[in-house]
Specification:
CATH architecture of the largest domain: 2-Layer Sandwich
Strand order of the largest sheet: 15-19-20-18-17-16
Number of helices: 23
Keywords: ATP-binding, Chemotaxis, Kinase, Nucleotide-binding, Phosphoprotein, Transferase, Two-component regulatory system
Structural class: alpha+beta
Enzyme class: transferase
Shape: flat
CATH class of the largest domain: Alpha Beta
Pfam families: CheW, H-kinase_dim, HATPase_c, Hpt
InterPro entries: Bact_Chemotaxis_CheA, CheA-like_dim, CheA-like_homodim_sf, CheW-like_dom_sf, CheW-lke_dom, HATPase_C_sf, HATPase_dom, His_kinase_dom
Strand content: 15-25%
GO cellular component, one term: cytoplasm
Number of domains: 5
């Protein structure tokens, strides 16, 4: 019987990455020198599972590397070695190395083994120290390793598969201990009509010749002790009783290698179901997503309601059209709209994941950087169960890394300076997430020295970003750190100081229709606040008419809409009109002019102005009319056509027409209102002339 193991690769990779995440989390939190056996066992089990799985699927580069790592962990958990900081650092590097190897294998590429071989050499050097220290006897003596042959009877209980265990993996690990012969017995398999595919009816007998202790065999089966009958006995010669044993139980097959060992089709079926389930939830960068059963149940209920409504409308359609049927039809359509909206919300909830998936990468990051900088740092994580769309989560991770690295490098002081300032020598970085309206707010806070406003201002002047005579508030000066090429670092390091970080952060966040701002107090600390939409797939928008065209303006960007008082309009330069609105000057952008539309209303007093905000700048968009507000499903122009300046995407309206979604930031650039290399609008640079 031949089994195509490649169908289970994706399950193996996902579970291996989860195991590595668990190892990293425990290693970051464990205190070297402590006897936290439960934590050590958790780390060991994760490595053990990866080794077993990789050996089963023939990924020898992973299994060979994990073997030496597992040996060191085994000695630590048995008390033979003390867990030191050196070991923790080495194990963390090994986690990174295993991730690299697994990603290469997942991409069906040949892994680069240079780092793995280097780390493996370090592990072998550590493990070899103890053996070389022991007396070895005469140098001429040839040491023969004693071997024993064990008979292992393994009879799982019927519910074994339901516990998530797979005999194939255990057989594979047995094969790594030595030479093995495997027999599978099918005498307990019932008639096909009574056969339950999720139950195990097979049992096995193994003859294993190995130089390992019996405890190594017991360790393989320790996870299924309560789910199977297991006996291990030392027997005589190798395989000498194999033929005789078949008399008491008819063997299904005898096979020489562990990877060929027979497993129940039921187990394969369960794994296959898992694979197909994961394939069906494929997404952009990760090929699976975990969904709570409550979300699935809610979705099924909504579909049920939709089916009932559809049946009701079909019945009405078969009746004669009367006043009562029209009323019933209207009620049915209203119910259909309600059900559709509920279904839409429930479907979107499936893509929502807790932000802990992003937060989980920062304990390791903070640990590594704080060691490099010789700083003591405590990381606090708040609001880890706050949910947001998976696509948003994947794209916000890198900007957050930039902000945390800057807090560690520039924000927090070294312990000596903190003590001198009357602070705790251990600095604190806090990540917090919470919902606010239709957005998610993420805060990166530190209790460091805060931003040096005067230094930022002077650097901006030196770099030609602002003029020496310009008067800016503290908040305005702090915002300068987001300008391209700005950095106050005196030396370039691998942590920060290249002048390419903060402007990229803002640009990436704006690409998600979000915003980032900073607040700081000298000696107290800084807070970076990121605001993002919960999802990128659906947008609350205001439909506006420009000539014969309909555009959508994101509601989150709109400040207000108004009719223009022509007496408050002034001209700046040749063709820029500005409206004085409550002591602010709002530049007026004519959409019909920017998008080259004919037939639009051009008289300012006969149009409407939609005041929008982007990058802390307000502008007014001139439109012919305001239409409805509605949620729209965003379709990417870049993926389906090409990038269009001033447009962030498109959607299909209820009447089948395509409507473009306005990108406020891109529109400002397209209009020429902002000069290259400047963060100010022209109206701000000529504010005195307007006044």
């Amino acid at each position: 019987m031949s089994i195509d193991l490649s169908q289970f690769f994706e399950v193996f990779f996902e579970e291996s990455f989860e195991g590595l995440d668990a190892m990293e989390s425990e290693l970051v939190n464990i205190e070297p020198g402590t006897e936290d056996k439960e934590t050590i066992n958790t780390i060991f089990r994760a490595a053990h599972s990866i080794k077993g799985g990789s050996g089963t699927f023939g990924f020898t580069s992973v299994s060979d590397f994990t073997h030496v790592l597992e040996t060191l962990l085994d000695q630590i958990r048995d008390g033979q070695r003390e867990l030191t900081t050196e070991y923790v650092n080495l194990l963390l590097k090994s986690v990174d190395c295993l991730r690299t190897l697994l990603r290469a294998l997942q991409a069906e590429e040949t892994p680069d083994l240079e780092e793995a071989n280097e780390l493996r050499g370090k592990f072998e050097a550590i493990l070899g120290m103890e053996s070389t220290a022991e007396p070895t006897g005469s140098s001429d003596a040839v040491t023969e390793v004693a071997k024993n042959t064990y008979q292992i009877d393994f009879k799982p209980k019927p519910h074994l598969f339901k516990t998530g265990n797979e005999p194939l993996f255990m057989i594979s690990e047995l094969g790594e201990l030595g030479e093995i012969e495997t027999q599978a017995f099918y005498d307990a398999v019932p008639d096909i009509h009574q056969l339950h595919p999720d139950e195990c009816f097979l049992s096995w007998r193994f003859f294993l010749t190995t130089d390992k202790e019996q405890s190594a065999i017991e360790e393989i089966f320790e996870w299924v002790e309560d789910d199977a009958e297991i006996t291990i006995n030392v027997c005589g010669g190798i395989f000498e009783d194999a033929a005789a044993l078949s008399e008491e139980n008819e063997p299904l097959s005898v096979q020489k290698t562990a990877t060929q060992a027979l497993v129940s089709p039921a187990g394969n079926k369960e794994l296959a179901k898992k694979v197909e389930s994961k394939k069906s939830t494929d997404s952009s960068t990760s090929n699976s997503i975990r969904v709570g059963i409550d979300k699935v149940d809610s979705l099924i209920n909504m579909v049920g309601e939709l089916v009932i409504t559809q049946a009701m409308l079909s019945q009405i359609g078969e009746q004669e059209i009367t006043e009562s049927t029209i009323t019933a039809l209207q009620e049915g359509l209203a119910q259909l709209a309600h059900n559709t909206r509920d279904l839409q919300e429930n479907v979107m909830r499936i893509r929502m994941l807790p932000i802990s998936f992003v937060f989980s990468r920062f304990p390791r990051l903070v640990r590594d950087i704080s060691q490099k900088l010789n700083k003591q740092v405590e990381l606090k994580l708040l609001g880890e169960q706050t949910e947001l769309d998976k696509t948003v989560m994947e794209k916000i991770s890198d900007p957050m890394v930039h902000l945390v690295r800057n807090s560690l490098d520039h924000g927090l002081e070294i312990p000596e300076r903190r003590i001198a300032a009357g602070k705790d020598p251990v600095g604190t970085v806090t990540l917090n997430a919470f919902h606010q309206g239709g957005n998610i707010v993420i805060e990166i806070m530190d209790d460091g020295q805060g931003l040096n406003t005067e230094r930022i201002r002077q650097k901006a002047i030196d770099n030609g970003l602002i003029q020496a005579h310009e008067e800016l508030s503290s908040d305005e000066v702090n915002e300068l750190i987001f300008m391209p090429g700005f950095s106050t670092a005196d030396e370039v390091s691998d942590i920060s100081g290249r002048g390419v970080g903060m402007d990229v952060v803002r640009r990436n966040i704006q690409a998600l229709n979000g915003s980032v701002e900073v607040s700081s107090a000298p000696g107290v600390g800084s807070t970076f606040t990121i605001r993002l939409p919960l999802t990128l797939a659906i947008l609350d928008g205001q439909l506006v008419q420009v000539a014969q065209h309909t555009y959508i303006i994101p509601l989150i960007s709109i400040v207000e809409s108004l009719q223009i008082d022509i007496s408050k309009v002034s001209r700046v330069g040749k063709d820029l009109d500005v409206l004085r609105l409550r002591d602010e000057y709002i530049p007026i952008l004519r959409l019909y002019d920017i998008f080259d539309h004919q037939g639009a209303i051009e008289e300012l007093d006969k149009t409407l102005l939609v005041v929008v905000e982007s990058d802390n700048h307000k502008v007014g968009l001139l439109v012919d009319d305001l239409l409805a507000q509605q949620q729209v499903v965003i379709k990417s122009l870049e993926a389906n056509y090409q990038k269009v300046d001033g447009i962030s995407g498109a959607t299909i309206l209820g009447d089948g027409r395509v409507s473009l979604i306005v990108d406020i930031s891109g529109l400002i650039k397209l209009s020429g209102l902002k000069r290259p290399g400047s963060q100010e609008l022209l109206v701000e640079q000529h504010g005195t002339e307007v006044a």
